[in-house]
């Protein structure tokens, strides 16, 4: 049996973790995701995840009838995909994370405006972040439009859908360039090229979006408010990026500071050369791709 429990126990006198720096907020999320990823393993703590909460977390103010104060330590942009509920993946509960979810975790005015509210009004905030995920359908749609322009013609009349795909296209193009540089131009003929291109673009898209947030909120960046990104691997349930130093297609756990400027070339080049992307290219082609 596997249990995930939110527990308020008055006798426990649980004190909500309150990170004072961006680094501490990142550590809290990394440890929370590690606990979530252990679920289902044979270890003792792989069977049960107990998340202590305070009455305020549950909307139970100390003063009857009074609303709890909003006190997240992180504000994150994630994908709308139902398999990627950010609080759960990070072993957090209500009132811990200010979440903006939109397909492809793209940045649009409304999403950045929401983060602007959080940055301006929520004094416990220590981290802004972007979380992508493998197997993202929105990025997959952008990849299909990129590889087969006739597919893009099919969405040109649908302005809302087109705006999503357009927002992702730069990362798809950047991923394509990186894969061709790392594996040669003939890689585009690999039967698994779509899947390798999609996952590379997913990682680049999350990093680019985080870099954009860092630029947008540059005036308030400090040790006590920073930016990070990561990609949730649906298979391993780990948030991070492919391990570029491993010969195994493993996922390196942990949020990262986004690259900036020319650092992006090396960053996405390392991803393209990783054993994880190589394993996608070498896999038996799946039906329909
Ligand atoms: Zn998605």
Number of H/I helices: 9
Helix % is 40-55%
Overall pLDDT = 93
What letter string, H or E per element, gives the SSE order? EHEEHEHEHHHHEEEHH
Whole-number total of structural domains:
1
Beginning-to-end CA distance, first to last residue: 36 Å
Q: What class, by secondary structure content?
A: alpha/beta
Largest sheet: 6 strands, mixed
Q: Into which percentage range does the β-strand content fall?
A: 5-15%
Task: Name the strands of the widest sheet in spatial order.
Answer: 4-3-5-6-7-8
Description:
The protein is an alpha/beta fold and 289 residues long. It has a single domain (3-282), classed as Beta-carbonic Anhydrase, Chain A. Helix content is 41%, strand content 15%. It is built from nine helices and eight strands. The protein has helices at residues 22-38, 86-89, 109-121, 137-147, 149-153, 159-183, 193-216, 263-273, 275-282; strands at residues 3-7, 48-52, 74-78, 97-101, 127-133, 226-233, 238-242, 251-253. Strand 7 (238-242) and strand 8 (251-253) form a beta hairpin. The longest helix is centred in the middle third of the chain and has 25 residues, at 159-183. The protein binds zinc ion.
């Amino acid at each position: 049996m596997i249990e995930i429990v939110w527990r308020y126990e008055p006798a426990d006198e649980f004190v909500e973790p309150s990170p004072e720096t961006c680094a501490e907020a990142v550590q809290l999320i990394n440890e929370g995701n590690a606990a979530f990823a252990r679920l289902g393993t044979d270890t003792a703590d792989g069977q049960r995840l107990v998340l202590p909460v305070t009455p305020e977390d549950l909307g139970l103010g100390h003063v009857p009838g009074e609303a709890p104060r909003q006190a997240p330590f992180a504000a994150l942009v994630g994908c709308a995909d139902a398999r990627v509920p950010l609080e759960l993946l990070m072993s957090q509960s209500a009132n811990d994370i200010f979440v903006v979810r939109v397909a492809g975790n793209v940045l649009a005015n409304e999403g950045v405006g929401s983060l602007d509210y959080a940055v301006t009004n929520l004094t416990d905030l220590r981290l802004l972040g972007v979380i992508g995920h493998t197997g993202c359908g929105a990025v997959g749609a952008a990849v299909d439009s990129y590889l087969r322009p006739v597919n893009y013609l099919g969405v040109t009349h649908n302005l809302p859908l087109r705006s999503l795909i357009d927002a992702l296209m730069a990362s798809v193009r950047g991923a394509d360039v990186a894969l061709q540089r790392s594996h040669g131009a003939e890689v585009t003929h690999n039967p698994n090229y779509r899947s390798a291109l999609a996952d590379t673009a997913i990682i680049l898209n999350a990093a680019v979006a985080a870099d954009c947030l860092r630029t947008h909120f540059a005036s308030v960046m400090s040790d006590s408010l920073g930016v990070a990104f990561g990609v949730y691997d649906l298979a391993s349930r780990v948030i991070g990026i492919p391990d570029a130093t491993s010969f195994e297609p493993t996922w390196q756990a942990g949020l990262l500071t986004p690259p900036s400027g020319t650092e992006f070339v090396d960053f996405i080049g390392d991803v393209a050369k990783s054993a994880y992307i190589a394993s996608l290219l070498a896999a038996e082609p799946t039906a329909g791709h």
